[in-house]
Design brief:
Number of helices: 13
Helix content: 40-55%
Structural class: alpha+beta
Number of strands: 6
Number of domains: 2
Radius of gyration: 37 Å
CATH architecture of the largest domain: Up-down Bundle
Strand content: 5-15%
Distance between the termini: 22 Å
CATH class of the largest domain: Mainly Alpha
Shape: elongated
CATH topology of the largest domain: Butyryl-CoA Dehydrogenase, subunit A, domain 3
Length: about 375
């Protein structure tokens, strides 16, 4: 159960022993915790901005005109599509690119692609998870820090970073949702003009007809086509993922300041495991969670050592007063008389005849 403990596990061991449920932090660890808290806040803000912005995939009107039909949109300059919002930079009433940014179907949860919905959901979940360790990082400097809770918070942060990474893969898997697919004019070898699909229900004549098919038909999953390019929405999400990973490392570096009594307990437990007594501990108790249980185990171990010392003492009496030939003789009246003559109690005879098969363990000082 105990085995050889790593350095990071010493804090968990001390917490299990009930040394100090609220552990103090040194000034250096407080500074590290402040940086950890700032990183968490930055990553959550960047990820939230990434969800809200429309600049994930963009295409200029001059590029779209080479393969798509945009004649019905006067003064079109640029089209941008995000996870929940979009921007149509055009003249007149068809232009939609002002704050608050327009969302698909006037509903933040009504994206035309399930890939975008899943991506936004994963990032939003990561942001919500980052809020928990961020709140704990604020109260930990006020005397509420425990290393066990800190390790759990770091696990949550790392899980949030994993969700962000997964969201980017899901989004890239849906790149084909940006490609035009309906041909309007066939050429000799390939389609010359495709029907574009825009995210505005005003342009498309209904909420069921919207989309963001503004890129070439050659655009497939995990592959960007010519004419379209990435916006800063995906880059800020990547930055949020990297900051979250860095925050996890900062969180791991925040450890409590131990007083001399706690350091003694840690060293004591480490020495105990080196003596090979973890089997004895596992047999006597399933979990050492208090000082009292540890004291009882140490007292029992010292009692075992006293018993072994008595056995060695009896053996030395036997070596001095009883010749080795007689000691090897069968048990009889002569051997019995030798024991009685030399004043050894009959009950110690059996103990004296036993030979220790293992080297004696050093005695552990009492707690």
């Amino acid at each position: 159960m105990w085995g050889a403990f790593a350095k990071d596990d010493e804090h968990t061991i001390a917490y299990m022993l009930g040394l100090d449920p609220h552990e103090p932090l040194s000034w250096l660890n407080i500074a590290t915790n402040v940086i950890y808290s700032i990183f968490l806040l930055m990553s959550a803000m960047f990820a939230a901005i990434g969800i809200g912005t429309y600049q994930w995939v963009e295409a200029e009107a001059s590029d779209i005109a080479q393969y798509g039909d945009i004649a019905h949109i006067p003064g079109l300059e640029k089209v941008s599509c995000g996870l929940v919002s979009y921007c149509i930079d055009a003249a007149g009433d068809v232009g939609e690119c002002t704050l608050p940014w327009p969302v698909y179907n006037d509903d933040p949860t009504s994206q035309p692609s399930n890939y975008w919905t899943a991506t936004a959901g994963l990032i939003a979940t990561a942001v919500a998870l980052l809020g928990l360790p961020w709140i704990y990082s604020l109260v930990s400097c006020l005397g509420c820090y425990t290393h066990t809770r800190q390790k759990r918070a770091v696990h949550v942060v790392n899980f949030a970073a994993g969700l962000m990474l997964l969201s980017l893969f899901v989004w890239a898997a849906g790149f084909h949702e940006y490609a035009v697919e309906e041909c309007l004019h066939d050429g000799a070898d390939s389609c010359q003009l495709y029907k574009t699909k825009f995210p505005s229900h005003i342009l498309e004549g209904g909420k069921d007809n919207i989309g963001c098919r503004i890129c070439r038909s050659t655009m497939t999953s995990f592959s960007m086509a010519d004419g379209c390019h990435f916006g800063w929405g995906s880059f800020i999400t990547i930055a949020a993922m990297i900051i979250t990973a860095c925050a996890g490392q900062c969180g791991r570096a925040v450890k409590p300041k131990w007083d001399k009594n706690q350091e003694w307990w840690i060293d004591y437990l480490a020495d105990w495991t080196k003596l090979g007594l973890r089997e004895t501990l596992a047999a006597r108790t399933s979990l050492v969670d208090s000082e009292q249980q540890l004291k009882v185990a140490v007292a029992q171990h010292n009692a075992d050592l006293e018993a072994r010392a008595q056995q060695q003492h009896a053996k030395r009496w036997c070596d001095i007063f009883v010749p080795s030939a007689e000691r090897r003789a069968p048990r009889g009246a002569h051997v019995e008389s030798q024991w009685v003559a030399h004043g050894e109690p009959p009950r110690q005879r059996t103990m004296a005849e036993q030979h220790l098969r293992s080297a004696p363990h050093p005695k552990i000082s009492s707690v």
